[in-house]
Amino acid sequence: KEHLRKGRTAYHFQPAKNWMNDPNGPLYYNGMYHLFYQYNPHGATFGTGKLSWGHSVSGDLVNWAFLGTALDPTSPFDAEGCWSGSATVLSDGRPAILYTGRDADDVQVQNVAFPKNPSDPLLREWHKPGGGANPVIPQPADVTGNNFRDPTTAWLGRDGLWRFAVAAEVGGVGSTLVYRSADFVHWERNAAPLHASPGVPVWECPDFFPVAGRGEVHGLDTSASGPGVTHVLKLSRAVDEDYYAVGRYDDEAGTFVPAEERDGDARNWRRIDHGHLFGAKTFFDARKSRRVLWAWVDETDGSSDDGAKGWTGIQSFPRTLWLDTDGRRLVQWPVEEIETLRRKRVALLGAEVASGGLQEVAGIDALQADVEVVFEIPSLEEAEKLDPKWLRDPQRLCAETGDGGVGPFGLVVMASGDMQEQTTVFFRVFRHDGTYKVLMCTDLTRSSTREEVHKPVYAGFVDVDVEKDRTISLRTLIDHSVIESFGGGGRACITARVYPEHVASGGRSHMYVFNNGTDPVVVSKLEAWELATASVNAEDGGFSGS
Ligand code: FRU
User: Fold this and answer.
1) Could you tell me the CA-to-CA distances from 256 to 37, 190, 224, 241 in Å, in that order?
2) Cα 123–314–309 angle (5° rounding)?
């Protein structure tokens, strides 16, 4: 299994070889899931950015077949690259792609493409209308810095016109513009931007979608509107920060107003993920009536630029997401299809972990695993007071506080036999403002003995009522070079890439529950499954989707 030794994942999406970045045009169509992505068919680096759209299909979001490229930089309006974009299912059922072209003069413009044969269930070939149709939107005169890219999935307005949003630097201000069209080819710009955020000239990869009522897990079609529908705007900031706000979309004015003011600065919005994840894009999965999120998880091994591994970049495991009961926050959770990969299971029930305790979770291959654990906190007495200066800097709070208090407790994952290499995913509970605040961390500082690897501490606060619940849940997906964690039932997520030497050399990894807090905690329930290797873009085309 040579490829696994080089950090390849067993059930995360990645091409067999070459460079991949943003997810593009995720789509459910005629019983199949499609994922397109920024892809360099000629090598494992971004190179000059002259990218194609890679294309894979799946019956279950778990097993994928690679179909080659769907869009290549072959036309005057995309000669320097087919950059990010989205797919939309039109009213007649045909899908359409909107994408950014870097034209022959390296100017960013918006283009459309349609399937050559809409009755091909695999949508293998795509046609870019010529004859002057493309670019459908040339770069507007007030766009600065050549930043005009990443169109979203389109939605129908109440006037029956299609609309989509696109990131643009307008007079130096990071804006999201909206365009309207009756036929998907002729577009007119709205007078007002959907949103603008002074202070940041360039946002990338906007995503804009409706969510159902508070706590309702089902998703909505992107065109859904009316009472009970709330909208989410997500913006990405290079190269690992995705922010979102829940708010009110005014279809007539074409504007989005976040429900939380946050100084009018999108950099203060909530994070999709507190770790290393970028360019998130969602789609409505009509098969299961849910909204599903993909995101690019870049390499952080410090040597990816030379392309030595032959591949670069993975996608996060697809997550379903919905609006939490507070109406402000999203909840994210791995799609249930992951359970089809669950094999051997081990469990702990009601195990007390004393202060300083370390208990191994043995019996499964801890390099490809799905772990769900509920920690019960018998006493909050030892919780330390939170210095408010940390509220804006949870990463330093994680890095600088030692042991003791309530927590740190959590999981040690991808640990070498001698514990020289280990990654910890943990919680700490602090007193704050007459109540409690829960910090969640993924500490990579000891994840690898390799020097050049990026080994930060990732952190975020988890909005759970620990005083009432007395429990905190954690789910962690481990997959050779990625650790994706969901705290508090998916209210805070941390994704991290890891490159342990013991894994590279084919050694075994271990997993533990630990508690370095002052008082004991109880693992009221822990279940860990070894996950089977999915069939992901096998080079021989082996497709085992259901
Ligand atoms: C974000 C991004 C997009 C662009 C694409 C190019 O990662 O820079 O803004 O469309 O990647 O690959």
Assistant:
1) 27, 13, 15, 20
2) 115
Give, as one character, the DSSP assignment of residue 400: H
Residues facing residue 271 across a β-bridge? 243
What is the amino acid identity at position 360? E
pTM: predicted TM-score of the whole model, two decimal places: 0.97
Ligand 1 center to residue 314 CA distance, Å? 15
**Cβ proximity of 76 and 59 under 8 Å:** no
- What share of the chain has pLDDT > 90, as a percent? 90
Catalytic entry in 22, 103, 285, 370: 22
CB 537 within 8 A of CB 16: yes
Give nearest CA residue, ligand 1 atom 9: 204
Where are the strands (E) in 416-540, listed by range?
Answer: 423-432, 435-443, 457-462, 471-479, 482-487, 492-497, 510-515, 521-531
Question: Beta-carbon neighbour count of residue 298 at 10 Å?
Answer: 18
Q: Is 267 helix (H, G, I), strand (E, B) or coil?
A: helix
3-class secondary-structure state, position 392: helix
Q: Using the atom order of ligand 1, give the atom closest to the CA of residue 239.
A: 7
What is the predicted pLDDT for the residue at 199?
A: 86
User: Cβ < 6 Å from ligand 1: which residues?
Assistant: 21-22, 38, 49, 51, 83-84, 100, 149-150, 204-205, 279
Of 148, 229, 130, nearest to 193 by C-alpha is: 148
ipTM, two decimals, is 0.98
Active site residue 301: no
Amino acid at 511: M
Q: Whose CA is nearest to atom 6 of ligand 1?
A: 83
